[in-house]
Write a structure and sequence with these properties.
This protein is of the alpha+beta class and 92 residues long. Helix content is 55%, strand content 18%. The chain has two domains: 1-39, YefM-like fold, CATH 3.40.1620; 41-92.
Length: 92
């Protein structure tokens, strides 16, 4: 996986060639990574997007679980959050 400076996004031919070759590029600004660019097939846009969203969701859930293990919430706080959420949704 290679890196690509944000200023190089204007070089469309260069970008396409790099994506065809490397399939994934990390986009940087001032040397700091901030986005991932991946090559996809035109006929698989929706499927690719759904898979990326699913992977990001799974990573977020895993991170939340790890955080809960290292710093478990108190039952009282969990009960309060559940009640507040139900109240906002008009449940009980």
């Amino acid at each position: 996986m290679g890196y690509l400076a944000v200023k190089d996004l204007k070089k469309t031919r260069f970008l396409r060639e790099r994506l065809e070759k490397e399939r994934e590029l990390i986009l940087t600004k001032d040397g700091q990574p901030f986005a991932l660019i991946i090559g996809i097939a035109p006929e698989n846009v929706e499927k690719s997007l759904a898979e990326i969203r699913r992977a990001k969701f799974s990573a977020a859930v895993m991170g939340a679980r790890q955080k809960a293990v290292s710093n478990p919430p108190e039952q009282r706080n969990m009960d309060d959050e559940i009640l507040e959420s139900r109240k906002k949704r008009g449940i009980r």
